[in-house]
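The pair is quoted verbatim underneath.

:::
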Amino acid sequence: MGGCSSTAFAAGGADAMPMRRAVEACVGADGDRAQLRAYILSRAPTALDGLRRLRGPDLASSVAALADGFKRWQPEPRAAPAPRAAGAAHVRIDETALRGISLPQLRAYVADAAKRCKKEAWKSRSGEPLTPEALTLYDLATHAIGPLAAATGLSVVETLADGPQPPAWFVSHWWGEDLLSFIKCLEQHCKDRKLDEATTYYWVCAYALRQSALDDELDGGVGVSPFMRAIQLCDGTISVLDGKAIAISRAWCALELYETTLGRGAAYLHDIYTAHEFDNRQGEHFSAVGLVDGLGAADNGSMYNKSYRERYFPLGTLGGAKAFALRGAEASREEDLAAIRRQVGVNEQRLDRTVRARFGLQQLPALMRTDAQGTAEQLRALLDDLRGSQLRKLRVTFEVQVELSAAAMAQLGASLPASLEELVLYHGGGGPAIAQPLCKLIKDGRLPRLRTLHLNHLKLGDEAGIALAKVIKGNPTLTDVNLK
C-alpha cells in the first residue's frame, strides 16, 4: 500500500481487533480461512458489517452468532461467478475487508483505463503525457479511481462486483510501480499456486477503499484499519516489489508486514514477487518470478523444483530491505508513521530484524559458500537479524555442486530464533557443523516451538545423525522430522 492518507488514521488508539476475534471464533488462530470465506459468500454476506464499531456485549453477541451459523453450515460446491451484466447497478459492500478483486476484474478495469488514457490524453502529476504502458496507481487514482469515487461514493470493487468478495490474498505493494508489471506478478502467483483466477480475490487497497470517504474507511485507528481486518480473512500476503523494492521502505507496507510476520501465526503465508523477463532452460518465457513461502502447487512437492523456479529471482531487488527500520519508513504524513509506530509499540526492533531477515535470507546460500569473498560482515549482520527476529519458518535450498563453509553452517545453527517452528535445509554439505549448535539449542529448550525439522542431503554423517536423533527422541514438540 503506498498512496492512502487520512486525518482519521492518525488518531490510533487501543482496540480489541473485532475482526480477528470473529475469525478466530470460527476457525481458530491458525485455522483454514477458505471455508469461512465460502460461508460468507454463500450464506452470510452481511455478517461482518459494522463489526469494527462494536465493543463489549454487542461484539460478543455478534461474534457468537457468526460462529454458531458457521458451525451449523454445510459447505456447498461453489460455482464460478457469472460475468457481470453490462449496465448492472452498483452494489454497496459495507465491510471494506470484503472488497477483494479477481484478476479478470483487474485486467478489465486496467484495460479500460488504458483506452481512456489514449483517448483523453492523460498526463502525469508532473504534466508529462502518459502512455498506457507507463500507467501507475498514482495515475489511475488521479484520472479514474478518484473521479469514480467522487461520482458514486464507492470503491472500484463495488462497481465491478455483485456482492462481497472475501480475499484469499492480501497485496502489499507500492503505488509507483506500473500497472502491467503488477498484474504480471499476480498472474504468475496464480500459476505458481495453481489458483483459480476467477474465484481467487486479492485485497488491493486502491481498489478496495472508497477514496472519497477515507476518513470513514480508516476511522478507529491502525488496529482496526481495513488493512489489518483484511489480513485476518486471508491465507497469506504477497509482497509485490518494484525493481528497487521501494515498497519495503513505505510505512504502510511496514504495517502490513508487521501483521503478516508478527501478528498472524505460522500457517499464514508470505510470498514475494517481482516483474522480471527471462527464459528458463526449457525455453519457456516468464514475465514475473516469485519466492513462494513453502512449496507452491506448481512445484509438485519437490524442493528441487522450487529451487529451480526461484533461481531466476533477481536478488538485487531485495537489497532495499538491508537497512529497513520502521522509524525511517516513508509516509505521506508524519502522523501516519507516528500512528503505525504506536501500534507496533515495543515490537519495533523485533519487526525491523524480522523484515530484514525475511527478505535477506534469500541471499544466505551465496554468503555461505566456501569461495565467497568479502561477505563475512554481511553474513554476520544477516545472522544477527535472524537471531533477533520472530521468523517462524526457515527454508533454504543450497546448490547441489556448491561447497558450503562449515564455519558459516555452525553460525547459522547458533543463530536460529526461539520463535522458529519449521526448519528445512536442503542440499549442500556442512551437516555435522550445523548439527552441534542445533543439538544444543534443542536440548537447552531454546527452540521450544520447533515442530518441523528437515535436514535433507546435508551429509550429516553417522556421529552427527546419532547425536541429533538422541536429542529429537526426547523432544515432544518435534512431530515432523526428516534427516535423510
